[in-house]
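Project channel, design review

CF: Before we commit to the Oceanobacillus jeddahense constructs, I'd like one complete example in the thread so the newer folks can see what an input/output pair looks like. Taking TetR/AcrR family transcriptional regulator.
RD: sounds good, go ahead.
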Amino acid sequence: MITIEYRIIQAFAEELKENGIKFTMDDLARRLGISKRTLYEHFSSKADILDALIEDAFAEVDKKNELILQNDDIPVTEKIKEVIISLPTHIELVDRPTLEQIKRSFPEQWEKLSKIYTKDWDEMDALIEQGIREGIIANKNAALIVKMIRGAVETAQDQQFYIVNDISLTEALSQIADIILYGLVSKEE
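CF: and here is what came back for TetR/AcrR family transcriptional regulator:
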């Protein structure tokens, strides 16, 4: 059963995607077909809804990553690739213009997003170290490899690039992972 809170979070994400952060609680209530009073009974502000959206989106990513990391049937290189391409369902949370709006209008939520984007690289570091120990990944500086992966993943914030070049974000991240893991040189060479 879908709760009203879930519906509000989803409608908030849709408003964010379509209109940026500038929409009002009136706009959100209208989208939902509920009164503003009903909206305020569940969330006291846009910041509270944004907090819930962030929590919901990245809890989902954490759950996906946990399943990937715990699955012993997946080779380490595939685990690395799957972790690289696991993004929140609410893709607006990785869109540069939206992030800039959040940074200006909701500094507390921006701080949470910033921490999320910078904190969870310990898992990747462990996967890289495991790959090096197992001889699957070249014995290079693991911290540097993780920094390169992190930088490549951060390009996901440039949604316009993907639109102009007709490539989905998931497809782009998959290709980034392949290039990092397997290189640029054709196997035929």
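RD: helpful, thanks. DSSP finds eleven helices and no strands in the chain.
CF: The radius of gyration is 19 Å.
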